[in-house]
Amino acid sequence: MTKVDEIRDADVLRQAALLLERENATLHDKVREQAREIARLKGLDLSGSQLEIAYLRELLAQRERALFAEKSEKRPREAEATPAEPKAPRRGHGPREQASLPVVEQVHELAEAERSCPACGGELAEMAGPSEDSEEITVVERRFVVTKHRRKKYRCACNGHVATAPGPVKLALREDARGRRYSLDFAVEVALDKYLDHLPLERQVRRMRHEGLAIDSQTLWDQISALARRLEPTAEALREHVLASPVVGADETWWRLMEGQGSKRWWAWALTGPDAVVYRILPSRSQAAAREVLGEYRGIVVADGYGAYEALARDGPNTFTLAHCWAHVRRKFVEAAAHFPEPCREMLGLVGELYEVEREAGDSLAKRAELRAERSRPLVEAIRKRALELATEALPQSSLGKAAAYLLGLGEGLTRFLDDPRIPLDNNATERALRGAVVGRKNHYGSRSQRGTEVAALFYSLIESAKLADVDPRAYLRQAALAALRDQPPLLPHALAS
User: Fold this and answer.
1) Residues 333 and 404 in one domain
2) Percentage of the chain surpassing pLDDT 90?
3) How far apart are CA 336 and CA 341, in angstroms?
4) Is residue 7 part of a domain?
5) In terms of domains, do 365 and 397 share one?
6) Are residues 289 and 336 in the same domain?
């Protein structure tokens, strides 16, 4: 079903609104029909009909929220017993420390004509120590320049040998080493603008023209495609690094391929380790695509309840172990809380206690194992017991019934974290890693070719991994490209981490 927030055409959006309004009217008719049936039955047991009416009302509210409400998983805080004293209003946000910016000192002097004393007419002399100092943040405009490299030649008096001074390392667009008009730094800058700052190539072209450089988007694409080709061994080494982790997170989101007529829905798959993430953009969300992403991985995969992962985990004894994500369980009850506030508040409170245990444990695996055995295991048992009760009380098709069924259907995957402190409680790290690709998809709408999907996956892998390793993406991408052009071993982001 097409989501309303994905529609961009005004006419299509208007038609979708009319269809939803018609559907709402049909549901209202069903509610009135149920009310008439209750009136006819009178003194008979009406619990089934009342549940059906509650479900229909819930369905109506969900449709309205899908159209008009904001999406958020944040829960309101419980009211405090004693209200806190109101804080004084804060005026401004104050200056921020800018430790990473270079400091340029500029000295201001009085003009010669102003160096006379207005009281006696004498000449003003410069004071030896004091000055009035202040700071301001300014911008130095980016400039494009044509650098002419003159490589001098040297020869011996015997004319037996001629040597030429070495020039800078350049990025060749083709295998014949031609097309070296633009520098490596230029290609790195274009790639970062697109895959880090999410600027489409056409928008970069317009900005560069304002800055004096006449260029087209095809030239920019040639640069980042050639850079990606040289960085392919680095991306493959990064993938092997992630697959060597004992625990990885897996998730996926849709991606648009704009090739030929119309657009096709592809899928961006993310695989995260402790300090790196790799992406693959594939034509489907199938089990075969999941196998292509995971390869022969034999560790622990943390994922949501998507069936492709479960099917792969059941393939045989020599496969990975699947652990499920508690954030997805929580999300189901957040969605149902508007219609079933009391049971959802209870379940969300229990899940919140699981997260409180994780916060207390911190990064210590020993303490995490101890607290999970002592406190998390009874909490999980209480959650499953309450979910069994809710599954019998609520209609199966209601949001509460679906939330309880989702929790119970995940089975052992939700309890595996209790026996292995390395397994995180949720897969939020992988979801955060997908944010860059999602923002890029919204800004430049996806890829125009299959090669575009490969280039996007490569640069997202390198850039997002640099961010996870707390390394400047610009510095890393340049150093990794230099290492590749010099035929050195692949440089991974965590190797640069301080």
Assistant:
1) yes
2) 58
3) 8
4) no
5) yes
6) no
